[in-house]
Amino acid sequence: MRWLDWFFAARPLLHLPIWSVYLVSLHYHHALSGEEFGWIDLAVLFGMSLLFAGAAYLNQIYDFESDRLNRKVGFLQRGFLTQRQLLVGCAIVLTSPVILAPLRSWLALFIAAQFLLLAIVYSAPPLRLKDRPVGGLFANAYAHGFLVPAAVMPEMDLHNAGLLGWDNPFYFFFAVGGVYALTTIPDRVGDAATGKATVAVILGRTGALAVAVALLILAGITAWNSNHLLLVALAAVALVLTVIALIARSEAVVRIAPKTPLLLLTVIAGYWYPIYLLIVVALLWGTRAYYKRRFGVAYPEPA
After folding, report:
1. Is 298 exposed, middle or buried (CB count within 10 Å of its CB: 0-12, 13-18, 19+)?
2. Torsion over CA of 176, 103, 30 and 114, rounded to 10 degrees?
3. Cut 0.85: pTM above it
């Protein structure tokens, strides 16, 4: 089971937003360039997953106590992996894409280097951005929302920048930031107990929801100005659920609000790249089977 422990400790389900954002951005890029999905695109996606796997390994080391208080299933807490093992794994998967990135382009190296830096400062002291309201939100919005769409460009020049459409990185920056604010709400009690100053800890439930509303409105406006109606609809769904949670004070809606746009984004990406949906279904099935056997729990949990 050890190799499976390594695989699932990388939190593959949390990579779905990365994959979906990348594929949707890639579709818009290829729609203008006339290109099709190729091995290079797959290699870039795999490299980003390695970088986020490293971030996941490191995050579990520094989130050990808060994960325990929030009753999250943990590989360290169960003794399936040690901190030393996660550190070694983190070093390998973080440095490999950076070393190989120049084979793609210098832009790829620049993006990979930023991912590596953010993965470290997000969890490790002294910055520990994950424990800071502005730092945590910005790191997630910039890494997941801005850098991932930017990675579809082979080079930074006027031609490629125009093909990408700068609306995509800004749209996803705002959208991911809004969704991240929502995800801090369920963990606010455990986070506060361990000294974390997340958006929900500092601003409270209502404040975090208000931040999410503002960012989702900005995302919708950005997509509307670019005439990307699917992305407008996506932001609108998340916005409506967030407003309902704000008015009704429903914890169930708070938990559903960040998951629903991710599901819809995955469906959109799967519509354009059908094999992606098969991969997602297989990953969900495999994750549920693994956690049931290894931890004796149902994961992912129902909303």
Report:
1. exposed
2. 20
3. yes
